[in-house]
Design a protein that fits this description.
alpha/beta; 8 helices; about 45% helix; about 240 residues; 6 strands; six-stranded mixed β-sheet; globular
Length: about 240
């Protein structure tokens, strides 16, 4: 049998990684990594998500997308009714709050990133490097020494997927930890109905909104902030949250 680690990691993004035309209302790119212990994920997180879907939709084939929920699109049209939306959001927030995972995120300030280099690197690749290094340090700190860990991404297109996998393997071979990262990428279609990918989709945008407008109320961020990887002294910046530049 192949040697697999005890953890699985789900990744999702928020914002456009392009630098040609930067949206003034959302000038950041966020890549969020949700680290789950497999035993907890299969026995607690997945059943809780299934129960949530059965409660509000009667089946488990609805894909939770933060954008569609926010805009009341598709099956989330039910949320136009206040008497449905309020308990739905309360239960969804509760689901995220009680799901046991550790959060790592890389945030790229695109205007500053673009100005920093004559030929700025792809924000997706930069954020991925920051994230993978910190995921490795988190797992290493938990005593993970053997077995490969799978990192799951949503597919974005044939060209983009090829570039992500190539960069992923480059980072694993050469990075700031000085170690070869024991990770394997898994690229999944948006319709794959992965509970972990759906949860990671819900946490990326609130991080971006917090960086853009830290004074504004951000209930979603308030819920997930306790999930961030931290230093022994409790620091998040540089440990669970890397903002660049």
């Amino acid at each position: 049998m192949p040697g697999f680690g005890d953890y699985i990691v789900f990744v999702d993004e928020s914002g456009d990684h392009g630098l040609v035309s930067i949206d003034a209302n959302y000038p950041v790119f966020v890549l969020a990594f949700a680290i789950f212990e497999k035993a907890v994920y299969t026995r607690q997180v997945v059943p809780a998500l299934m129960d949530f879907k059965f409660k509000y939709f009667g089946h488990d084939q609805v894909i939770l997308h933060e954008h569609d929920i926010r805009k009341n699109k598709g099956p989330f049209g039910i949320l136009r009714k206040t008497e449905v939306r309020e308990p739905f959001m309360e239960d969804l927030n509760g689901l995220i709050r009680t799901s046991a995972f550790t959060l790592v995120a890389g945030v790229i300030r695109k205007e500053e990133h673009k100005a920093r280099y004559a030929d700025p690197p792809n924000p997706y690749h930069t954020a991925m490097e920051f994230g993978l290094e910190r995921v490795y340090m988190e797992l290493h700190g938990r005593g993970c020494r053997t077995g490969s860990t799978h990192i799951l991404f949503e597919r974005r297109g044939q060209k983009e997927d090829a570039e992500v996998e190539l960069e992923f393997r480059r980072i694993c071979a050469s990075n700031a930890t000085g170690k070869r990262l024991p990770f394997e990428p898994v690229l999944c279609h948006k319709t794959c109905n992965s509970p972990g990918l759906q949860l990671s989709d819900l946490i990326a945008r609130p991080i971006g909104r917090k960086i853009i407008a830290p004074e504004q109320p951000n209930r979603a961020y308030d819920i997930i902030q306790s999930k961030f990887r931290r230093s022994r002294g409790g620091n998040v910046l540089g440990y669970g949250l890397k903002i660049f530049p």
